[in-house]
Amino acid sequence: MFRQRFTSWLSALVMLFMAAGVAHAQQAPDALVKQVSNEVLEAAKADKSIQAGDLRKIIALVETKVMPHVNFKRMTSSAVGRYWRQATPEQQQRLQEEFKILLVRTYAGALSQAKDKTVQLKPSRAAPTDTEIVVRTEIRGNGDPIQLDYRMEKAGDDWKIYDVNVLGVWLVDNYRNSFAQEISAGGIDGLINKMAERNKAAAARS
Length: 206
Description:
The chain is of the alpha+beta class. It has one domain: Tgt2/MlaC (Nuclear Transport Factor 2, Chain: A, Roll). The chain is about 55% helix and about 15% strand. It has seven helices and five strands. It has helices spanning about 1-15, 30-45, 50, 55-65, 70-80, 90-110, 170-205, and strands spanning about 120, 130-140, 145-155, 160-165, 170. It has a five-stranded antiparallel beta sheet with strand order 1-2-3-4-5. A hairpin with a 2-residue loop joins strand 4 (about 160-165) and strand 5 (about 170).
């Protein structure tokens, strides 16, 4: 069940993230989610290399289009939890770098599943003055609908994603538990080294 949940989250997250760079400033967050999700669906259907998980293309797209629209520092610091304040600036930078590589490489394996999905927005409960919002969606395709929610924050005229929920499990909470175990065993450097090892092993297999 967890593997299905995690894969479903990745597939849906990719659909949103890969086209985030084309969103217009001052666009409502739910409209942003709907627009970019549909654009990514079209991109996935049209590009065989994306469907095949071309890692170099995915990395380039993430760097140029995704990261400017994600508060990745907040996402990483929240996943590391209370240990983030104990990390030096250099360690914080390494944590962000390795976490990003970890997610990008996992996205590559999920992209091929995005091509047959559609996105349906759920009614929003947010007020126009809110600066943080949860956008709730369902991903529909083969099988049962997948609950997918986005925590987003207002940043100037833009909205940025800092957490994702699939089937009741928030990404940050999930990683916080595993990261805490690694830090307890080997400290912050131990977590960095463990992520780096996993990323190198994944690169060697690709």
